[in-house]
Amino acid sequence: MPAYEQASIIGFLKTLQVLPPGAKRLVIADRSRFLANGPAIEILDKWGIRPTSRILTTCVAFVDCSWLNRSKHHVAMNAPLKLPPQTATVSKISGLPGCFARFRRRQTVLESGAVMFVSGATRCVEVDVEGLLSRLRAGLLALTITAFVVALPTTRSRADSVGALANLTGASTSTCEGVLTDLTGGDSSMLLDGLMAGEAEELLELVAHLAGLTPAPGTNAAGIAKPAFRDMAEALEEGMPDHLWYGQIFLDIRYADTNRIPGQVVDIGPVAADSAIWSGHYLAAEAFRYALARNKVAKAKNHPQASVWGREMARARQRVNLMVAGAHRNLNISKNWKAIGLYSPAFDGEAGMLFRNSFPEGVPTWQQNQGPNRDTRIFGPVPWDDGTNYYCMSSFTRDQYTGCVLGLLMTFDLVGPDDASLRAEVGNDLMTMADYLVRHEWSVVRPQNTPQDATPAIQPLGNGISWVLFMTEAARHAAWVADGLTAQAKWEATWTETLATFGPFLVVDQNGLVQSPNQSYFSHNLSHGQAYNNIRLEPDPAVRDYFRQCFSMEDSTTKDDGNAYFEAVTYALTGESQRLNLAVQHLQDWLLYYARWTQPTDLSARCGIDFQCIPQDQVTYEARQPDGTWTAIATKQGTSTQQRTDRVLRIADERQPQDFLWQRTPYQYTLAPEASPLERNAGVDFLLPYYILRFHTEVAPPAYAPWPEYPQRSR
Length: 715
Known about the structure:
Layout: H1 3-15, E1 26-29, E2 40-43, E3 55-64, H2 95-105, E4 116-117, E5 124-127, E6 140-150, H3 158-169, H4 173-184, H5 197-210, H6 227-239, E7 252-255, E8 265-267, H7 275-298, H8 303-332, E9 357-360, E10 378-383, E11 389-393, H9 398-414, H10 420-439, E12 443-446, E13 457-460, H11 465-482, H12 485-502, H13 506-509, H14 522-537, H15 541-558, H16 564-574, H17 577-595, E14 613-615, E15 619-624, E16 630-636, E17 643-645, E18 679-681, H18 684-699, E19 712-714
Antiparallel strand pairs: 1-5, 2-3, 2-4, 3-6, 7-8, 7-18, 9-11, 10-11, 12-13, 14-17, 15-16, 15-19
């Protein structure tokens, strides 16, 4: 018997207390065999073993062993045992390797009882420990000790896979058989082997969507992926083409009528100017989606499973490629933006100036007005490498850079390992943006002030310490992973200088007592995306701990805001299960929020009843007490005529419809301008935290490393 089998069996028997602690050897009587309809194998439920999903459950075969003598002759045994609780049938088991091989290929649950039958050659086990037999049941001997993965119920045959798909979709069995054959590349009989109910259901749902079938609502979760979450993610992805134009996303689009028929878009919405930031957030979501599918392929138990998940990888990769192409154009087309007259070439544009969006010359005005009376931030025509002229929206901000870099960084790390050319391009783009900003002292120099004013203009951006560190850390990371020694030396030196110059101010930049809990709430969204990468990418433990300490100050103010994205990020950084649970709960609440997104409700009449309405700029400062409670220590009275609530509003029934919910204050009760029955929101505020949570629960679970709670916060 191999050493690893010996170790597993001995360890298990010690656990059962049928072997003394000092036992070290087992003797196997290889000549013993059973004939057809051989013995029952009893799963040791009586020993406290409880098979659950994906648990390695140790089993021992017991039979009436009166036939066994010391000369170890072959004896036929057909005596059934009392039915134990858990059952399955296999064709043959022979040792640990054989057990795993057989259970991967064919398992059948018996409806009538809880007996596992083994036919064929089975080894008889004799334990070389004096007095052992007296400790086993009278007249019983352990015949086979093996370990296998119990996954009940699972589907084991082509008929089961076909029938399950037909039941899920209502399609005919012939249609389902053809679909499965096509998607799995042939034999689909093993498609659901070894999967728990939620995993099998998710896989069948994916098959249905890939084939253009409509699955019924599911009933089983796969990890944090509740059926409603999976349905929402698929629905949002299916509707995404109406939001995607030229590699850019536009969150709130308007349709011709309230039926919102796909393809009948007449406006790209009031927040089109923020396309770069949200394109980056969506790109990040798709990178996480891709990494999740890749992990499913890597862990597939057979070729059919890998084949189906490979198609999901391809779907995610298609979106990644589209968004990367849009970002690449928007941050590099500025190299062709020329100054006018005497200002050229001194003030000509350079690569690294990130435009908010860009559209080909000649698009309909509902996409972009390119006429003489257009928005003064739109410049063009500017030629691009594809031979097309584009009109590009300027007004450069750290918001747009943060979103774009967030998406490119996640693509670089999660998709780049599978494509060297993609990683090289994305890495170069990350360094290009940071290089431009460093050389221009965190400002953008526009070749023209407006389309009507040819005077160059300087636009400072260095108003965020965390952002400056984020941009430099991203370039440094790209250089070390995908570039040569020259770039690595350059960015290591740049990082050292940037950290020395800006790092000491991070403790002020992220202090919750300095930031408003309500006004400019979008800055908290930016800092969470920045902190996620600043902390995870920093190789120096001391610097990383400093970043965590600084971010904990902001987290103290925002952690109770009912924000699934913030909770997903902080779960990934701390491994705290409470944050995971809250994120899942708030995504569940988001589903109810999204169901009423087109019909906002003004809550003004509830002031003084369900909550108090206070000036927007009023802030209460609180201190944490030794018992964990918070006590108000001071209040800065507000003077604003605009009001907010004095408590965080519920997501499901009180939050106002927003473009990206998690960047908006949870204290706003007045009507938001984004929503109407004619509009549709892209749902990136669902997809990003959803895929982050799936990645960090299924692919890369974080270590438990909570930071100390900062003892002060603002409300």
